[in-house]
C-alpha cells in the first residue's frame, strides 16, 4: 500500500516555522517505522507566497539537522493562485498513493499519531478518520484559544468517536473518495468553511466520519496580534456568509449571526472558568484570558457587520 502525505504550505507562512519543522520531523520518524506501507510526501504551495526553492531548502535542512531518513518520494508542487482548500484538492489529484493523509503545515502530531490513524483506517477503510486536534497551550495565547475557540479542549481519551464534523488539518481516507468529492468552491472572498460544506454532502451520501482520539496533534493559536484580529474578522465574515449557503440558510441571517456571537461570548466565560485547570491557566489569569477572547469575538461580530454593510470590501480583506 502506498500512502501520500498531502501537505499544504500556506499555514506555515502564518505560523512559526518551528512548528513545520517539528511536523516534518514527526511524519518522517513515524512513517519510517511503518513497514506495511510506502510513503510519499507531496507539498503544495503557491509561488506568489513562497518559492519552491525555499521549501526544498527548508526540508533539506530539517532532514540534515535531525539526521532523518528520507521518504521513498518527496515532491513540491506549485499551484499558482491557489489557497488552502485549493491546495488540498490539487494535492489529492496529484497524489500517487491510493490512500492520502491530509495535513496542515502548522500541526504537530504526537507520538503514536500515525500508527493510530493507520489502524483506524484499516478498521474503517471507507470512512474518513480524523486525528484529535487541540490547541497548543504552552503559552498564554494558546491557553486562551484552547479554552474558548472552536477546537475541543485537550483530553486523555483514546477511543473512536463517530462525528458529523471534523477538522481538515489531519485526516486519512482513500484518495478516490476525495477525487470524487473535492472541497467545494466557496462564495467569493470566503477563506474557510469549504470542509463544513463537504462533510454535509458526504453525510448525505452515507460516508462515515470518525475522530480517532488516540491520534493526537496540536494546532497553534493565532500568531501575534495582527493575525489575532485578521482571523477574528475573517471568521466573522465567513460565518456570516455561510448562513446564505444551501445547507445553512436561515430566514433571518443577521439575527442568527448575532445569536451565534452571543452564544460564543457566553461559552467563552463558562469554558474558561470550567476548564482552566486542563491547560494550567492560573486563577489570576482568568480575567485576562476572558477579556482576550471576548475581544476576539467582538471583532468576530464586527467582521460580520462589515460584511453585511460593505460586502465588496469584506470579500477582498482579511485573507487567511
From TrEMBL:
Keyword Nucleotide-binding recorded: no
Top class in the EC scheme: transferase
Residue ranges of every copy of the Glycosyltransferase 2-like domain listed in the record: 89-136
GO molecular function: glycosyltransferase activity
SUPFAM superfamilies listed in its UniProt record: Nucleotide-diphospho-sugar transferases
Keywords: Glycosyltransferase, Membrane, Transferase, Transmembrane, Transmembrane helix
Protein name listed in UniProt: Glycosyltransferase
Species, as recorded: Algoriphagus marincola
Amino acid at each position: 500500500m502506498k500512502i501520500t502525505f498531502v501537505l499544504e504550505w500556506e499555514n506555515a507562512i502564518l505560523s512559526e516555522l518551528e512548528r513545520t519543522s517539528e511536523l516534518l520531523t514527526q511524519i518522517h520518524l513515524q512513517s519510517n517505522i511503518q513497514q506495511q506501507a510506502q510513503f510519499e510526501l507531496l507539498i503544495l504551495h503557491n509561488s506568489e507566497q513562497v518559492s519552491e526553492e525555499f521549501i526544498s531548502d527548508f526540508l533539506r535542512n530539517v532532514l540534515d539537522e535531525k539526521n532523518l531518513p528520507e521518504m521513498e518520494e518527496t515532491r513540491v508542487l506549485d499551484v499558482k493562485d491557489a489557497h488552502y482548500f485549493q491546495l488540498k484538492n490539487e494535492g489529492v489529484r496529484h497524489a500517487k498513493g491510493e490512500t492520502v493523509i491530509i495535513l496542515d503545515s502548522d500541526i504537530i502530531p504526537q507520538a503514536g499519531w500515525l500508527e493510530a490513524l493507520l489502524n483506524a483506517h484499516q478498521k474503517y477503510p471507507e470512512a474518513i478518520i480524523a486525528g484529535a486536534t487541540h490547541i497548543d497551550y504552552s503559552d498564554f495565547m494558546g491557553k486562551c484559544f484552547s479554552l474558548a475557540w472552536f477546537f475541543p479542549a485537550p483530553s486523555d481519551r483514546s477511543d473512536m468517536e463517530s462525528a458529523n464534523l471534523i477538522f481538515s488539518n489531519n485526516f486519512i481516507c482513500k484518495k478516490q473518495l476525495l477525487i470524487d468529492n473535492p472541497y467545494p468552491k466557496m462564495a467569493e472572498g470566503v477563506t474557510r468553511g469549504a470542509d463544513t460544506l463537504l462533510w454535509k454532502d458526504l453525510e448525505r451520501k452515507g460516508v462515515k466520519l470518525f475522530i480517532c482520539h488516540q491520534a493526537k496533534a496540536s494546532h497553534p493559536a493565532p500568531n501575534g496580534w495582527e493575525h489575532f484580529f485578521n482571523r477574528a474578522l475573517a471568521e466573522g465574515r465567513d460565518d456570516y456568509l455561510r448562513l446564505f449557503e444551501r445547507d445553512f440558510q436561515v430566514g433571518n441571517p443577521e439575527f442568527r449571526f448575532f445569536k451565534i456571537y452571543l452564544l460564543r461570548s457566553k461559552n467563552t466565560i463558562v469554558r474558561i472558568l470550567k476548564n482552566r485547570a486542563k491547560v494550567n491557566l492560573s486563577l489570576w489569569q482568568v480575567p485576562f484570558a476572558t477579556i482576550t477572547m471576548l475581544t476576539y469575538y467582538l471583532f468576530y461580530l464586527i467582521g460580520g457587520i462589515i460584511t453585511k454593510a460593505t460586502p465588496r470590501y469584506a470579500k477582498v480583506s482579511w485573507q487567511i
